[in-house]
Specification:
With 328 residues, the protein is an alpha/beta fold. The chain has one domain: TIM Barrel (Alpha-Beta Barrel). The protein has a 10-stranded mixed β-sheet with strand order 1-2-3-4-5-6-7-8-10-9, sandwiched between helices. It is globular, with a radius of gyration of 19 Å. It starts with 10 loop residues before the first helix and ends with a helix.
Length: 328
């Protein structure tokens, strides 16, 4: 296997990721422009995270510190499953950040040729992101300097959203906490978990439940995310409710699986729920969780938000950002 000089990633995988519009950042990190960043610049439309939590879509850096490393092979994942073992020399957090911002700017450069459609001031803001979504691909808790990465982003005045599959509770227990911590919960029981998430490590269901029990003690804004896959995991809301009650998150997002990327090799378009189906399942879940109420939704993202009312939008900025969006 031919390897790139800077990483334990094969040239074939590197070419595939580049073809899919990822921009590699150092040895093991990568950036990809979120389609909502593009929509925000071109059409003044924004993502559900801006509507729900007050981040700015055009200033969001979507990145991963572990592009080709994961401990699951989720059937619904739109990322590649051509992953490699993490036997590499890991970049330090500052290198990851610098290379990621540099990659984001390269990906945005072409929009300067579209200033008849893009507001220049907004584009200049986009070139200086202030929000990072540490997710994108791979499992970020496999990056050994994740705490340092979050701390370094925070020092740069970034808000930090971290998404994890919850299979490394020992990491989360000692983590420098992000602004918002997501745990993916895409199965109501162990049987569906093993079939749909295809864990690559033993005791994965036990580890996930350990994370759910740990969740209440983590002093940050916490979200349980359910990716709803029609015909697979859109069942047993009562079992989801028992799991969620252990975690006591501030918010619950129920979001439709989207028939995109590599998931099309493993799923069909019939597995993608309509927004009305997501709402209907969320209502069933709401009935099982009396402390939570459906407070928001975004139809074009097929996502619904439940809240227990403990936390509000990101430092009260949601309305301000929405007003600024209207002004561009």
């Amino acid at each position: 296997m031919k390897l790139h000089k800077n990483a334990m990633i094969s040239e074939s995988l590197r070419k595939e990721l580049t073809h899919q519009h990822y921009r590699l950042a150092g040895a093991h990190s990568a950036v990809k422009l979120c389609h909502w960043t593009k929509h925000s610049l071109l059409e003044n439309r924004y993502c559900y995270k801006q509507k729900f939590y007050g981040i700015q879509s055009h200033r969001c850096l979507q990145m991963t510190p572990a592009i080709a490393w994961c401990n699951q092979r989720c059937l619904y994942c739109w990322r590649t499953h051509k992953l490699v073992t993490p036997d590499i020399k890991w970049d330090d957090p500052e290198t990851v950040i610098e290379e990621s911002i540099k990659a984001q700017r390269v990906l945005l450069t072409g929009y300067y040729g579209l200033l008849d459609r893009v507001d220049k001031a907004k584009l200049e803001e986009a070139m200086n992101p202030n929000q990072v979504a540490i997710s994108l691909a791979g499992e970020p808790t496999l990056y050994p300097y994740l705490s340092g990465l979050i701390e370094a982003f925070t020092k740069r005045d970034f808000s930090t959203f971290l998404v994890t599959n919850g299979l490394r509770p020992q990491v989360l227990a000692e983590l420098a906490l992000p602004t918002q911590l997501y745990v993916s919960l895409s199965a109501p029981n162990e049987e569906i978990h093993k079939k749909l998430n295809v864990p690559m490590i033993p005791n994965s269901w036990k580890l996930l439940n350990e994370t759910l029990k740990l969740f209440p003690s983590l002093d940050t804004r916490k979200v349980i995310r359910i990716t709803l896959v029609k015909g697979w995991n859109d069942v047993h809301p009562e079992l989801y409710a028992k799991l969620i009650s252990k975690a006591s998150p501030d918010f619950i997002e129920v979001k439709a699986y989207m028939f995109v990327g590599d998931s099309r090799r493993r799923m069909t378009i019939a597995n993608m729920p309509r927004h009305g189906e997501v709402v209907a399942f969320t209502r069933l879940l709401e009935n099982e969780l009396p402390d939570y109420k459906l407070i928001d939704e975004k139809e074009d993202s097929r996502v619904v938000l439940l809240s227990n009312g403990r936390k509000t939008s990101l430092i009260g900025e949601a309305e301000k950002h929405e007003q600024k969006t209207k002004e561009y």
